[in-house]
Amino acid sequence: MSGPAIAEMLNRVLHATETEQAELDELDGVAGDGDHGVTMVLGWRAVVAALSPPPSSAGAALRIAAEAFAGVGGSAGPLWGTALLRAGRALDSGATVPEAAQAAVDGMCERGRCAEGDRTVVDAMAPAARALASGGDLAAAAAAAADGAKRTAELEPRHGRAAYAPERVRGHVDAGAYAAAIFWTALVPDD
User: Fold this and answer.
1) Could you give the number of structural domains in the chain?
2) Is the CB of residue 35 less than 8 Å from the CB of residue 182?
C-alpha cells in the first residue's frame, strides 16, 4: 500500500461522507447538537487537501491525515486523528493492515476512554478490525462495521451526550458508529 493509494481511498471516504452528511447530522441531533455530519465532512476535506500531493508511503499519508483531521475539533477530530496517527505509525513499524486497523481502534479507545459496547464509534471500528484480523478483506470489514453500527441502536450509551438522554437515543444508530461504517464501506474498491 502506498501514500497515493491511501489518498485515493480517503478521497472516496470524503465523497461517501458528503453523501451521508444529512443522515449523520440527523442521527447526531437525536441527543447531540446535530453537527456530526458537518464535522466529518470538514475533517475529510481537510485530509484530502493535506494529501494533495500525497507522500509516497502509506504511513506518512496516514500521519498527515491524522494531523489534518485532528484540527477540526469536537470529539470527532481527536478520535479520528488519533486513529489515523496510530494506524500510520503501525504501518511505518512494519505492521500489517489488520494490525494497523487494530492500532486505530486501540487509539480511539484510549483517547475516548471507551470500549466496545459503550455505543460509540468503536462499536463499528472494532468489528471491522476483527474482520481483517481473521483474514477478511475490506468488504468483510465494511460489512462488520455496518453490522456493528446497526447494533448501537440497542446499546445503552455510556459516553457523550447520549449518556445523559438514553431514552432519546434508544432505537437510533449512533452517529459516530454510522460514520465509521461509511468510512469502511468507502474503502472497498469498486470492481
Assistant:
1) 1
2) no
Per-residue exposure over 62-95, b if at least 16 CB sit within 10 Å of its own CB, e if not? bbbbbbbbbebebbbbbbbbbbbbbbbbbbeeeb
C-alpha cell recorded at residue 142: 465494511
Check: CB of residue 121 under 8 Å from CB of residue 74: no
pTM over 0.90: yes
Residues of the domain holding 57: 3-187
pLDDT confidence bin for 49, thresholds 50/70/90: very high
pLDDT in the model for residue 166: 66
How many CA atoms lie less than 13 Å away from 56 in the CB half-sphere?
0
Note the pLDDT tens digit of each residue in 110-156: 999 999 999 999 999 999 999 999 999 999 999 999 999 999 999 88
CATH of the domain at 90: 1.25.40.340
Whether the CB-CB separation of 14 and 6 falls below 8 Å is answered with: no
Name the pLDDT band for 54 (thresholds 50, 70, 90): very high
CA 123, CA 185: separation in Å to the nearest integer?
Answer: 15
